[in-house]
Amino acid sequence: DVKVTQSSRYLVKRTGEKVFLECVQDMDHENMFWYRQDPGLGLRLIYFSYDVKMKEKGDIPEGYSVSREKKERFSLILESASTNQTSMYLCASSFRKYNSPLHFGNGTRLTVT
Amino acid sequence: EDKVVQSPLSLVVHEGDTVTLNCSYEVTNFRSLLWYKQEKKAPTFLFMLTSSGIEKKSGRLSSILDKKELFSILNITATQTGDSAIYLCAVEWYKGSTLGRLYFGRGTQLTVWP
User: Fold this and answer.
1) CA-based nearest residue in chain A for residue B86
2) Which residues of A touch B98 (CB under 8 A)?
3) What tens digit of pLDDT does each residue of A63-89 get?
4) Out of A41, A56, A98, whose CB is closest to B100?
5) DSSP string covering A62-108
6) Cβ atoms of B37 and B43 closer than 8 Å
């Protein structure tokens, strides 16, 4: 069974802090994704990666960056956290380029005060 | 504007009822439509539909896609309290040579009362 692990379940940070959200998958998947989920807005794609050191912007990349130094690990970075980045962050991975279901981690609920 | 629209946004039923959840989409370069169930934590995959008119079934859940009318339905028969969750519809589209990307709907919150 695919396992996608996000390092923190809950995180509280102050405005202006640099924040790292870590995600690791154990199934040798090529593709990894970061989404945020907000009530009433659904899941929105922040960034994704289809290979080590490759990354592409999703629909809402502003204020975020990512790092993929190893195949199994995909990190989301908030360079200077702001209160409007308070959200649930979900990491996911998939095997094939398309027609391949996403496998999600349990999420990190980030609160920025 | 939303590219994937789910309805209703919330639904309350009693155990044993049958429910139908709707998902309509407006996406170019369509590849597939996926349904997920989300309880407290990670969304879990239910179905992936790529062809019109072919029903996918798993226990009491079934789903079908209409690519001409651009919609899908998810049916749950004989509902149980364990079916209470948010049901997410997502459409995979294809842009250039990189991988498929998903647009998600806002979800349907289903509550099943005993």
Assistant:
1) A42
2) 50, 56, 97
3) 999 999 999 999 999 999 999 999 999
4) A98
5) TTEEEEEEETTEEEEEESS--GGG-EEEEEEEESSSSS---EE---E
6) yes
Q: B106 at the A interface (CB within 8 A)?
A: yes
- Assign A99 a pLDDT band (cuts: 50, 70, 90): confident
What b/e readout covers A47-69, taking b as 16+ CB neighbours within 10 angstroms? bbbbeeeebbebeeeeebebbbe
A42 CB contacts (<8 Å, ≥6 apart)? B88, B104, B105, B106, B107
Residue pLDDT, tens place only, B35-94: 999 998 899 999 999 989 899 999 999 999 999 999 999 999 999 999 999 999 999 987
Q: How far does B109 lie from chain A, in Å, by closest CA? A: 11
